[in-house]
């Protein structure tokens, strides 16, 4: 075609596509990802800087004699530290982690460190995945992270079960950074579905905070577990936005220009609606907290603002071309900026002089708003035709909704389960059956409500 027309037609189209991609990427900033989100409150964001310090404590060889503690220390009482597992203990099957019994905040915390660039085993966990390799609970998850989470749960199941039963009013929190965030998210996923493993722990007691999260689960799972899993992203962090399979990046180091060209064409030509309908595509899990501290075309850092939402579309889809894309991934910077944001929230509350009673009422209102936002996200996923997504059961459901309700309630976790259900749900209740259950006929043949149901009415 190009030779016949005398013009390099295909080359011109390719260059225009690349130019459009470059133009959109240069103008895209981190603030665009959360521009429509609401502001987080001090009550819901309070655990984040504290858990960041717990994760940093995993890097210490001796918590009683720390070498790298941040200003103010780790906030850990060494006597409350239950156990600490190193790479030697895990034999490379999972990153290092600690189990801490936080009596001050009524919390049982399992904190997992991030990727160790000097450990080959961490790369093996990260690269043990292919697109659509592992089906799980009606969706897809990262295979290597799921296996690492399974190993941790098998190793600490008895200890966790004992702690959960001894402290029934304590929450169980999984926290991790980078690679550890994916393992923590998978742990929350497994425990939330297999609650019997930890003494039938209530779902409301299970929490997960994924700091600088890896994209580890499909969109339907990411939204469905937003009531349990929370992800924290600092400004331009690259990892939650890296949709390209990481194994392809490592395999393509010798042909990186080819990879970039293919990525350019893919982002330019494939609409987001089509990406949402790919059931194998992985996303950052749960509710998202976005710490924004820089503004476009301005120098320096500004007072950090924390935005939060349970988004379905526009869920950190595009990489931000920024010199801070890698530094914003560091746990040290995330801890520092999250603490700054928390201090600003508390200072604003002190200025407003909110009484304790109003604080409790605000906490209750916040819980209701989160539940409403969670249900709205599930419904939004259904409206966008996200694969294997379904609406939550309504409080006043009709008989026509019974099939969707059963699908919602019958979703069971299995690491080897297939996507969706192979069989149909139970049949709907017919009107004739309903009438026979509720009414009888009198001597004249008229319908009369059964005596057993009159008291209920």
Rg from Cα? 25 Å
> Distance between the terminal alpha carbons, to the nearest Å?
78 Å
Structural class: alpha/beta
Percent of sequence in beta strands: 5-15%
Integer tally of domains: 1
So how many helices?
A: 18
Shape: globular
Low-confidence stretches: 395-429
Helix fraction, binned, reads 40-55%
Q: In CATH terms, what is the fold-level topology?
A: Rossmann fold
Number of strands: 15
Tell me what the CATH architecture is: 3-Layer(aba) Sandwich
CATH hierarchy class name: Alpha Beta
InterPro entries: AB_hydrolase_fold, Fungal_lipase-type, Mono/diacylglycerol_lipase_N
Signal peptide: 1-19
GO molecular function: hydrolase activity
Organism: Gossypium tomentosum (Hawaiian cotton)
């Amino acid at each position: 075609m190009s030779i016949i027309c005398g013009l390099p037609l295909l080359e011109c189209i390719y260059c225009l596509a690349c130019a459009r991609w470059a133009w959109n990427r240069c103008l895209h900033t981190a603030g665009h990802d959360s521009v429509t989100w609401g502001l987080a409150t001090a009550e819901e964001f309070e655990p984040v800087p504290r858990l960041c310090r717990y994760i940093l404590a995993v890097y210490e060889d001796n918590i009683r004699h720390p070498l790298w503690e941040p200003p103010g220390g780790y906030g850990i009482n060494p006597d409350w530290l239950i156990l600490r597992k190193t790479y030697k203990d895990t034999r490379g099957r999972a990153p290092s982690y600690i189990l801490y019994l936080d009596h001050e905040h009524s919390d049982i915390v399992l904190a997992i460190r991030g990727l160790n660039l000097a450990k080959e085993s961490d790369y093996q966990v990260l690269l043990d995945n292919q697109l659509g390799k592992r089906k799980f609970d009606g969706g897809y998850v990262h295979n290597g992270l799921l296996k690492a989470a399974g190993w941790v749960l098998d190793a600490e199941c008895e200890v966790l079960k004992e702690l959960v039963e001894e402290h029934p009013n304590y929450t169980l929190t999984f926290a991790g950074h980078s690679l550890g965030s994916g393992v923590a998210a998978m742990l929350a996923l497994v425990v939330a579905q297999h609650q019997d493993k930890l003494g039938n722990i209530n779902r409301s007691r299970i929490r997960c905070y994924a700091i600088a999260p890896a994209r580890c689960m499909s969109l339907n799972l990411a939204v469905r577990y937003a009531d349990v899993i929370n992800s924290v992203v600092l400004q331009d962090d690259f990892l939650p936005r890296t949709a390209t399979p990481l194994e392809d990046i490592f395999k393509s180091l010798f042909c990186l220009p080819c990879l970039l060209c293919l990525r350019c064409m893919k982002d330019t030509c494939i609409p987001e609606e089509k990406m949402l309908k790919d059931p194998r595509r992985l996303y950052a899990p749960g509710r998202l907290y976005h710490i924004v501290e820089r503004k476009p075309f301005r120098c320096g850092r500004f007072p950090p603002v924390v935005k939060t939402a349970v988004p379905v579309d526009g869920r950190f889809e595009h990489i931000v071309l920024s010199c801070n894309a890698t530094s914003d991934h560091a746990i040290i910077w995330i801890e520092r900026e999250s603490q700054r944001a928390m201090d600003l929230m508390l200072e604003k509350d002190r200025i407003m002089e909110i009484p304790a009673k109003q604080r409790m009422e605000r906490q209750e209102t916040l819980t209701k708003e989160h539940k409403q936002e969670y249900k709205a996200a599930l419904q939004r996923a259904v409206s966008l035709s996200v694969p294997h997504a379904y609406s939550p059961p309504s409080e006043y459901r009709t008989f026509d909704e019974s099939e969707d309700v059963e699908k919602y309630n019958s979703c069971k976790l299995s690491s080897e389960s297939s996507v969706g259900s192979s069989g149909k749900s139970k049949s709907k209740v017919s009107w004739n059956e309903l009438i026979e259950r509720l009414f009888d006929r009198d001597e004249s043949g008229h319908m009369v409500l059964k005596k057993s149901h009159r008291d209920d009415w």
